[in-house]
Amino acid sequence: MKQNQLVRALALAGLGFGGDAALAHVCNVDIGSGEPTLCGDSPQFSVYTPTVDKHGAVVLPALPNPFPAGFTGDPNCPYGGTDASGNACVYGKAGLINFSGYGWLMGTTPLLGDSHNLHGGTFFTFTLAESHTVRITLAGDTYFGNGAGLDPAFSLYAGRLPDDAHDGVGYDSTDPVDDSCGLPIASKTDQAPGDPGIPQYLVDPDTCVASPNPAFTVKVQRQYAKLYRRPNGPYRDTLNYIQTGGLDETDNPLHLFNGQFNAKGGWSMANEDAIPGDPSQTMVTNPDGTRATYKPLPDGSQELVWSELRFIKAKNAHTGPQMEAMTIALPAGHYTVAASGANCNDQSIACVAPHYGGKITFKIIE
Ligand SMILES: [Ca+2]
Ligand SMILES: [Ca+2]
Q1: What is the mean pLDDT of residues 105-125?
Q2: How close is the Cα of 100 to the center of ligand 2, in Å?
Q3: Which domain of life is it from (predicted)?
Q4: Are residues 162 and 308 in the same domain?
Q5: Ligand nearest to the CA of 321
Q6: Ligand 2 centre and the CA of 16: distance in Å?
């Protein structure tokens, strides 16, 4: 319970960061269609409205575009109307002004990054009905006098995350702990296949005193080191924290993971509708090998509540404000772009305080 309260507090702290509660958790903004994307909960929406330039590229800039003629919004809470309870439906024009200087770079480290620091939880998605070569760019973009200074960087993945997913939910916790002593346990979603589940310490459940586990032999230690040899691999060791420096003599991790965002490997997140242990929520494996969990809804449909992203490629070819671009051939499927800054990765105010405007573009080349 303590852990959940802590997670909730962190999540709320994240909500304030960037100034817009509706943007704090995963919002998948479609950069493939050129159509407006609604984010947030009724009756308050943020609307990302891209344009298509003369070269046929979808452009999403820092300064928000006007709603296009004929824009109606959510049918349950129409633009200019009221919801079922009579509340006015509020539509805010959203531009990209929330890129942090460290959001992407932190995700390249073994401690990973916090997805809130990418663009307040905004991810950029597109869908290909068939194979195409596509071009994606990210650059700084001025808004209200700010915008210069972003060192752009982004990562491309196959798949997409559930709406409203975030780093700390119980189903897929960043640093999961047991209920009785608050000490680390293996992540059910992120541990490597073949992880033997042998803890480095044994803990007395009554006193919570930790002592070395004789079963955690040198051989087992080597097994862990092999399973988690890639610091930015698609799996995380949250039992023994082999990737991040191990445990101290009281069984506490020397270094916790910052979040789940992995800029150089696969990763996964869940939303609050994913319930650990709920047998009605089935985990399935997609044709590309990624896994996903769905929650059955009363109308017979299914809600995506947990999913894995499969890493394809990261782009940070330049240091400084130069635009980053990726041209890549992709098969049919759903894709996600995680974008933010590669300016710095430390705790200084100069690093963590500024947020920058940016512009992302997407185009099918052939
Ligand atoms: Ca995960
Ligand atoms: Ca860069």
Answers
A1: 95
A2: 13
A3: Bacteria
A4: yes
A5: 2
A6: 27
Asked if residue 30 and residue 144 are part of one domain, the reply reads yes
Q: How high is the pLDDT of residue 146?
A: 64
How far away, in angstroms, is 353 Cα from ligand 2 center?
Answer: 19
308 CB-side CA count, 13 A: 24
**How close is the Cα of 186 to the center of ligand 2, in Å?**
35
- Structural domain boundaries enclosing 207: 175-256
Instruction: Check whether 16 has a pLDDT greater than 50.
Output: no
Is the per-residue pLDDT at 23 higher than 90? no
Are residues 172 and 269 in contact, defined by beta-carbon separation less than 8 angstroms? yes
Please give the tally of structural domains in the chain.
2
Q: Which ligand is nearest to the CA of 326?
A: 2
Same domain (yes/no): 9, 126: yes
Which bound ligand lies closest to the C-alpha atom of 176? 1
Inside any domain, residue 340:
yes
What's the 142 CA to ligand 1 centre distance in angstroms? 34
Residue 124 maps to a domain:
yes
- Per residue in 224-245, pLDDT tens? 999 999 989 999 999 999 999 9
Give percent above pLDDT 70 in the chain.
92
Residue 87, in any domain of the structure: yes
CA distance 27 to 21: 12
Quick one: 211 and 305 in the same domain?
no
Sign of CA dihedral 109, 350, 317, 99: positive
Interatomic CA distance for residues 45 and 73, integer angstroms? 9
Q: Is the pLDDT of residue 319 over 90?
A: yes
**Which pTM value belongs to this model?**
0.91
Is residue 248 located within the same domain as residue 280?
no
Using alpha carbons, list the distances in angstroms from residue 186 to 7, 286, 302. 17, 24, 28
CB atoms closer than 10 angstroms to residue 149: 15
